[in-house]
């Protein structure tokens, strides 16, 4: 099996920050968390565009500061989120593409999130794919439904999404794909041959789905964005603590841990000095 790639998602949702104000959310705090997670074994960081208070924003000031602080201290691969908020237009939702990032999330479909419709129109998807291609930013393709995989195939055929494509299958989100082994395996078997993929677990399923990924030859994700608890009712001390747990489980399962340089080779990303 390939070396195990760990993505850290350190930006807690604003609802979590309201509940736990001590969670890291400023540029310096997030950068410190990322560096510690990189030291623990993370190769990719998934970052949201948030302000000094941890709220989503279209202003890149805090985001650029966070990226610069990370770049000064480590070579982790930086992936920006283009999720944004539903009322935003496609350009506003993808302001992260203007920053010094190597990868960016791509949402190639629409889905219900509990009582909210998460709409990503065909026109918006087309904009994001072409803008990432123009800027030479590698898509990290989020999958909340199996139909989203099919939506990416024309772009792969056209060369707008480079191969091997990198997919992030999200399991456990209310209204989307349940976090069950059956659903997980179906998604993996539906991917284009040769794809790289990771699991993200919502609703407290983060550790569980990463363990499935370790066993199936995929990759995993951990961090305060997905779960601020290390075990039910017990908050994690840091993002690094959750990364360290995945490192330990992966190594005990016979998987080496991928360093950023290895992942850049796997995804044909430029070398960062």
CATH architectural group: Alpha-Beta Barrel
Approximate shape: globular
Strand content: 15-25%
Query: Per CATH, what is the topology?
Result: TIM Barrel
CATH superfamily: Aldolase class I
SSE run: EHHEHEHEEEHEHEHEHEEEHH
Largest sheet: 8 strands, parallel, barrel
Mean pLDDT: 96
Determine the structural class based on helices, strands and strand pairing. alpha/beta
Count structural domains.
Answer: 1
Uncertain runs: none
Enumerate how many helices there are, as a single number. Answer: 10
Q: What is the total tally of β strands?
A: 12
Largest sheet, spatial ordering of strands: 1-2-3-4-7-8-9-10
Q: What would you report as the Rg, rounded to the nearest angstrom?
A: 17 Å
Head-to-tail CA distance between termini: 28 Å
Instruction: Indicate the percent of residues in helices.
Output: 25-40%
CATH class value: Alpha Beta
What do you see in this structure?
- With about 270 residues, the chain is an alpha/beta fold.
- The chain has one domain (about 5-265): Aldolase class I (TIM Barrel).
- It contains 10 helices and 12 strands.
- It has helices spanning about 15-20, 25-40, 60-75, 90-95, 120-135, 145-155, 180-190, 205-215, 240-250, 260-265; strands spanning about 5-10, 45, 75-80, 105, 110-115, 115-120, 140-145, 165-170, 195-200, 220, 230, 235.
- Strands 1-2-3-4-7-8-9-10 form an 8-stranded parallel beta barrel, surrounded by 7 helices.
- A hairpin with a 2-residue loop joins strand 11 (about 230) and strand 12.
- Helix 2 packs parallel to helix 3 and helix 2 (about 25-40) packs parallel to helix 9 (about 240-250).
- The longest helix is centred in the N-terminal third of the chain and has 14 residues, at about 25-40.
- The two termini are about 30 Å apart.
- The mean pLDDT is about 95.
């Amino acid at each position: 099996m390939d070396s195990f790639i760990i993505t850290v998602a350190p930006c807690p949702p604003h609802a979590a920050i309201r509940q736990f104000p001590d969670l890291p959310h400023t540029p310096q705090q997030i950068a410190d968390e990322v560096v510690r997670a990189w030291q623990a074994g993370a190769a990719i960081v998934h970052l949201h565009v948030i302000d000094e208070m941890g709220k989503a924003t279209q202003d890149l000031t805090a985001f650029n500061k966070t990226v610069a602080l990370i770049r000064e201290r480590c070579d982790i691969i930086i992936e920006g989120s283009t999720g944004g908020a539903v009322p935003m237009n496609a350009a506003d939702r993808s302001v992260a593409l203007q920053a010094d990032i190597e990868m960016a999330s791509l949402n190639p479909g629409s889905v219900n999130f509990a009582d909210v419709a998460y709409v990503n129109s065909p026109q918006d998807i087309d904009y994001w794919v072409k803008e990432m291609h123009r800027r030479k930013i590698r898509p990290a393709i989020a999958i909340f439904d199996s139909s989203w995989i099919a939506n990416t195939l024309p772009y792969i055929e056209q060369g707008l999404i480079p191969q091997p494509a990198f997919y992030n299958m999200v399991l456990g989100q209310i209204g989307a794909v349940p976090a069950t082994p059956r659903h997980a395996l179906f998604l993996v078997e539906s991917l284009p041959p040769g794809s790289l993929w990771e699991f993200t677990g919502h609703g407290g399923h983060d550790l569980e789905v990463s363990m499935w990924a370790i066993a199936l030859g995929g990759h995993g994700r951990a961090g305060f964005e997905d779960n601020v608890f290390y075990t039910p009712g017990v908050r994690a001390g840091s993002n690094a603590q959750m990364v360290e747990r995945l490192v330990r489980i992966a190594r005990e399962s016979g998987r080496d841990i991928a360093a950023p340089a290895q992942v850049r080779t796997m995804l044909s990303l430029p070398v960062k000095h």
